[in-house]
Design a protein that fits this description.
7 strands
Amino acid sequence: METRAHYAAVGAFVLAMVFLAFAAVLWLAHGALNKAYARYDIYFFGPVTGLRQGAEVDYSGVPVGKVADVRIDPRNVALIRVRVEIDEEVPIKIDARASVETNILSGVSYILIEGGTQSAPLLTAKPGEEYPVIHAHRSRLASVTARAPELLEKLNETAERLNRLLGTKNQKALAATLANLESFSHGLAERNRDIADITHNADDATRNLGKLVDNINTSFSGPNGLAQKAGAALAGFDRLARNLNQTNGQLQATIAEVQPGLVDFSQHTLGDIHGLVADARQLVSGLNQVSDQLARDPSEVLFGDRRRGYTPQ
């Protein structure tokens, strides 16, 4: 009896657990079935490797839906149409962008929606579209993958150029250059003392130059320096200019005072002087004649001409 009762308890517990599990599944399924989704189409140009139906759809890293269908667009075989189901409570704006991202560790691809500003209008279907279309752009990894052939080609070109650069002829030239560099290094090592002397002399010259600059500065701006003497000289020139200006004024006043006398002198006195000079010239001329007669015959001047004889009165 005890064994049967034990089995009955175990069976009842198992049945209760199965019932609870079935109820939980129904509850979860009811929640998922009652959740409303909005459908959007995304057209990608190029491959969408790793993207499968049921893949996750994230909005700025937050799961918001799943991939409902992935197929080639029948109207343009260069495009891949990806239809996604997104929670209708998530607002998809007209400036949102979608890309295919790949988890590097797992290799699973998913849809990442980014962008969208608060002020932008909601995305709606245009005429002729079954569902609203989210604009697609390449992800960073896809951009690098798309440019991989170009990068490999440039890498090959670079390798070929390096091979040409490192040819036999260039290797010999490089070896000669390294040998010359080694010789130059040995020469510098041997002339180390000369270089030290040159450096020491340069330091001395720099110190002397600094002293010279200090002396020039002291001579110019120190007590009794050039600046002070130049200021005193300028002050003396200023006083001289003022004195010359005063003297010029005094001369102008003096000229103004003597100008009437100069006019009278030029108009009257000069005429009298000219007459006096003429009389003086006549007197000098007469004296010259008398002097000449005295020199020739003094008796004639004193007693007259004796050759004329006696003339009765």
